[in-house]
UniProtKB/TrEMBL annotation:
The name this protein goes by in its record: Bifunctional purine biosynthesis protein PurH
Family, similarity comment: Belongs to the PurH family.
Provenance organism: Rhodoferax antarcticus ANT.BR
Transferase in keyword set: yes
Catalytic reaction annotation: IMP + H2O = 5-formamido-1-(5-phospho-D-ribosyl)imidazole-4-carboxamide; (6R)-10-formyltetrahydrofolate + 5-amino-1-(5-phospho-beta-D-ribosyl)imidazole-4-carboxamide = 5-formamido-1-(5-phospho-D-ribosyl)imidazole-4-carboxamide + (6S)-5,6,7,8-tetrahydrofolate
Gene Ontology molecular-function annotations: IMP cyclohydrolase activity; phosphoribosylaminoimidazolecarboxamide formyltransferase activity
Any matching Pfam family: MGS
Designated gene of the protein: purH
PANTHER family linked to this entry: BIFUNCTIONAL PURINE BIOSYNTHESIS PROTEIN ATIC, BIFUNCTIONAL PURINE BIOSYNTHESIS PROTEIN PURH
One record GO biological process: 'de novo' IMP biosynthetic process
Domain notes: The IMP cyclohydrolase activity resides in the N-terminal region.
Amino acid sequence: MNALLSVSDKTGIVEFAQALHALGIKLISTGGTAKLLADQGLPVTEVAEVTGFPEMLDGRVKTLHPKVHGGLLARRDVPAHMAALKAHAIDTIDLAVINLYPFEATVAKPGCTLEDAIENIDIGGPAMVRSAAKNWKDVGVITDATQYPQVLAELQASGQLTLATKFALSVAAFNRVAQYDAAISNYLSAISFDETASAPALALFPAQTNSNFIKLQDLRYGENPHQSAAFYRDLHPAPGSLVTAVQLQGKELSYNNIGDADAAWECVKSFDGSVDGAACVIVKHANPCGVAVGTDALQAYSKAFQTDPTSAFGGIIAVNCTLDEAAALQMSKQFIEVLMAPDFTPEALAVFKTKVNVRILKIALPPGGTTDWANGRNATDIKRVGSGLLMQTADNHELTLADLKVVTKVQPTAEQLQDLLFAWKIGKFVKSNAIVFCKGGMTMGVGAGQMSRLDSARIASIKAQAAGLSLTGTAVASDAFFPFRDGLDVVVDAGATCIIQPGGSMRDQEVIDAADERGVAMVFSGVRHFRH
């Protein structure tokens, strides 16, 4: 048996080659890999000896030769193929251990030049991978160091790889080539060529986009039972994102569970535990129906639940801190679909042992243990439309006190400013048209997804009334401007004393005058947060 080893990432390659040699497998290699193996005392034949042709063009041409590709592509069950190999003195290659030049890592470096990028486009590697993968019944193709243990285990047990393993390796190999080519296409398609630039300027949205997603699981059905569905993750998921969750107990997640869980998790991630304290978000049908901060998970949950106990039934709960027993005991009194946290105490998990259907997800904090989740957010949002995509940068805008513009005669107090920022943070995650009443670090009424901003304001007020909450002295966030003064009058009539909105309406002055007339404070954020 002959093995060809040509790797850019040399993780584990020496140990793997030593194990192959111990099994009596002949080692063939290229360039730096051959030198590394030889330096370790392994008998290795360089590809140039096999082809009878030296490496040339600074290594650009070394394996693009019939003695390499013939050995990879020849079908052992076709006599004419084997006769052709014999006629041309070509040996079969039974294992191909190949990983590719680090193109993705190269272009990710600040200041990467076009020349550096081009030189890290592998040609011979993908060609060999494709040849070996095409001839999968006869050749085992290994494209990642994580595959070494299984391959060795089978070779040591029986001297050969099973067809099932070789097919799986082939699929993985074609997937890797697809990912590699997609990365090259995405990068080059984003370049606005300028021969005078030291590093190319990259467009935010390339002329062609090629996405790669890995299936995590098939789902029971989609939004409705007559629809099929599956759950995929990014090729390189961000730390602290929903797809990195570990399910600790409960039923299988549904399509709607995952959509609602993502809405809750993204919202709770907007609260930095070291600054804002413990935060809890309760979501129903993709909208927050209760959000609060507190000294601990129990207080945050208790406040969030007060906003809308009716909607919280069967809701999705997310907290930004370790969930302890006290919070778990309170939560367990209600019907919960999904519960998410960065971690759970053993006592908290024990509380839910009898609630076997509750889906409990642990989503680890990003490296460093911080609860500043900025590096775990999506950079872009994508929405499918008929035969196409809409793509945009994600709405990751963070508002600060310095961004606010007070436009009324009444100045908001320091306490009101904090309530306004809290309300604004929640409004970003509520479906448009969004109206959010808040006070003291908790939502008091949420109006979501109505065709009229007036209706959203009325619904928020009705929700608060149903929950027995007084809106007197509350802060209100509107995700977009008030087109007329009537929306402002509705929230002030309900009890609001300060309002935050983007501004930008042709009738802004009319709304400002109304606020002055009603004796309330109003600030403009200068940013709109539509969420469709």
